[in-house]
Amino acid sequence: MSTPFRCGFVAIVGRPNVGKSTLANALIGSKISIVSRKAQTTRHRIHGILTREHEQFVFVDTPGFQTRHGGAMNRMMNRVVTQALADVDVVLHVVEAGKWSAGDEQLLPLLPKTGNTILVVNKVDAIKDKNAMFPFVSKIMALHPYSAVVPVSAARDIQLDNLLAEIASRLPEGEPMFEADSLTDRPVRFIAAELLREKIFRLVGDELPYGCTVVIEQWEETEAGARVAACILIEREGHRPILLGAGGGHMKRIASEARQDMQELLGKPVHLEVYIKVRKGWSDREGSLRELGYD
Ligand SMILES: Nc1nc2c(ncn2[C@@H]2O[C@H](COP(=O)(O)OP(=O)(O)OP(=O)(O)O)[C@@H](O)[C@H]2O)c(=O)[nH]1
């Protein structure tokens, strides 16, 4: 009898900084999902697809569970997490080896009570005393009915094949849903905004408070090239000099690196203009968030 093909949705959840983006990139093998050392860089949901001989894994990379602020942004993000989890075949709950915190604890009620939740203990490469892992894992396993536990290192490619095998065995039988080479089902405009946001977080993420987002305002694409106008929305006028840097140096570098990535993505020349606009208090107005496409 031939091996049946399996295909299904996989969600990756966990508190900020546990390595969700790194894991998604390592499993899918694409650069589309954004990695940054700053918390909350994956505020949008991103799909990535891995197709193998007998399986297609459709990854839903959900946002970091946010507990710092009690505002509209937080409520909306929790809703996004719950929605994403309600609709998938396998949930990967990623935690950091040896580090269980309040953020992990608060995510537990959002995990589906039934179904396939795999506890993924990431960053095992950073643990010196391997014996300490057993009590750590046992304690977490007692908190939720996980169906499996897999210790991994997303960054060092340790046990990732084993994780894929655990996921694969839990996917429903079915035909592939996407073309074998599709990396994401997000529109290219969205990815372009993510690329720009990644550069901002990398360069000034430490100084810039969380309330900053990117909106693509103009997108004209022909065979020969693309003209893109992007707007960076900041919360306060005082954030503008941080973004600009001395002599506008930060902004130039952000725009130039984002433009190069966009060219690579589209495979043609890109003309990119970037504006900065102040939008006071946007992160705490649900209406504004909907407008920006977060709902
Ligand atoms: N030592 C070690 N570090 C890792 C590993 N995986 C990820 N990291 C690091 O952990 C940090 C956070 O990784 P991300 O992938 O951005 O984490 P995330 O969970 O997506 O973070 P948010 O977007 O904030 O939710 C980065 O500095 C990674 O390089 C790992 O296997 N081992």
Short description:
The protein is an alpha/beta fold and 295 residues long.
Description:
GO terms for molecular function: GTP binding; GTPase activity; ribosomal small subunit binding; small ribosomal subunit rRNA binding. It is a peripheral membrane protein. By secondary structure, the chain is of the alpha/beta class. The protein is 32% helix and 23% strand. The chain has nine helices and nine strands. The strands form two sheets. A six-stranded mixed sheet has the order 2-3-1-4-5-6, with helices on both faces. A three-stranded mixed sheet has the order 7-8-9, with helices on one face. The longest helix is centred in the C-terminal third of the chain and has 18 residues, at 249-266. Residues 31-46, 63-69 and 289-295 have low confidence and may be disordered. The structure holds guanosine-5'-triphosphate. The site of guanosine-5'-triphosphate has 24 residues, from helix 1.
